């Protein structure tokens, strides 16, 4: 029998992963609404402040909105959460700093239920930031939510984020994090694509570069 509840699991870490438009923010907001309304559990919403697209809010595309505390450093969560344990919902965790790995475990030990949502892969298809480590810490089976590939007529799951620079696939040698909108004069957009339609020029060059010895 599944020992995990769908609303609240005291002292545990759960991870939800998916690409853009997959509904992972909606999943997080549903969790929060259920816990507040039916479980009468305190709910705390967080997201890294680097993600400026929706300001202080976590929005789902079907219209649910919640105000979130923005954090620059993950350790700020420890200062903000010194009250009654409850449900801690963290959106866009791929942008969080490495300390989120330790902060999540400290909160778990205090009895909080931490539910983390994020993109597992960056625009190159590589493991994104702290997500692989957070996925290794998930007590519940990892929930994968997929959208459909954005290419017309393709029905495959859109498992990877395609970055478009002025409408064309961006080079693997560009920075890992560029928020949707503009990068200098270039227009940056993202869309979900299947592996077949996911295009990253110069990816071989990038992968080879990762193996080069780094100067200490
Ligand atoms: Zn496709």
Outline of the structure:
The protein has helices at 24-37, 76-80, 100-109, 131-136, 203-210, and strands at 12-18, 43-48, 57-59, 65-67, 69-71, 87-90, 113-118, 143-145, 147-148, 157-158, 160-165, 168-169, 181-183, 186-193. With 216 residues, the chain is of the alpha/beta class. A hairpin with a 5-residue loop joins strand 3 and strand 4.
Mean pLDDT: 92
How many strand elements?
Answer: 14
Q: According to CATH, what is the topology of the largest domain?
A: Rossmann fold
What proportion strand? Answer: 25-35%
- Quickly count the helices: 5
Helix/strand order, N-terminal first: EHEEEEHEHEHEEEEEEEH
Total count of domains: 2
* Straight-line distance between termini: 51 Å
What is the overall shape?
globular
Strand order in space, largest sheet: 5-2-6-7-1-8
Major beta sheet, specifics? 6 strands, parallel
Class per helix and strand makeup: alpha/beta
What is the CATH architecture descriptor of the largest domain? 3-Layer(aba) Sandwich
Q: Give the class-level CATH name of the largest domain.
A: Alpha Beta
> How would you name the CATH homologous superfamily of the largest domain?
P-loop containing nucleotide triphosphate hydrolases
Low-confidence stretches: none
Radius of gyration: 18 Å
């Amino acid at each position: 029998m599944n020992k995990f509840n769908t609303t609240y699991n005291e002292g545990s870490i759960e991870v939800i992963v998916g690409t853009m438009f997959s509904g992972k923010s909606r999943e997080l907001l549903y969790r929060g609404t259920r816990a507040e309304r039916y479980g009468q559990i305190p709910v705390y919403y967080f997201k890294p402040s680097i993600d400026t697209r929706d300001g202080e809010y976590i929005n789902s595309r079907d219209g649910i909105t919640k105000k979130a505390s923005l954090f620059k450093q993950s350790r700020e969560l420890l200062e903000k959460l010194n009250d009654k344990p409850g449900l801690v919902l963290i959106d866009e965790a791929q942008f969080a700093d490495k300390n989120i790995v330790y902060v999540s475990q400290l909160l778990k030990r205090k009895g909080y239920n931490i539910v983390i949502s994020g993109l597992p892969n960056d625009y190159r298809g590589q493991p994104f930031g702290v997500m692989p480590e957070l996925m290794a810490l998930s007590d519940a089976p990892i929930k994968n939510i997929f959208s459909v590939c954005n290419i017309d007529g393709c029905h495959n799951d859109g498992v990877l984020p395609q970055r478009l620079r002025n409408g064309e696939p961006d080079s693997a040698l560009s920075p890992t994090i560029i928020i949707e909108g503009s990068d200098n004069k270039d227009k940056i957009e993202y869309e979900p694509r299947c592996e077949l339609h996911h295009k990253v020029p110069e990816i071989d060059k990038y992968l080879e570069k990762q193996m080069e010895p780094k100067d200490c």
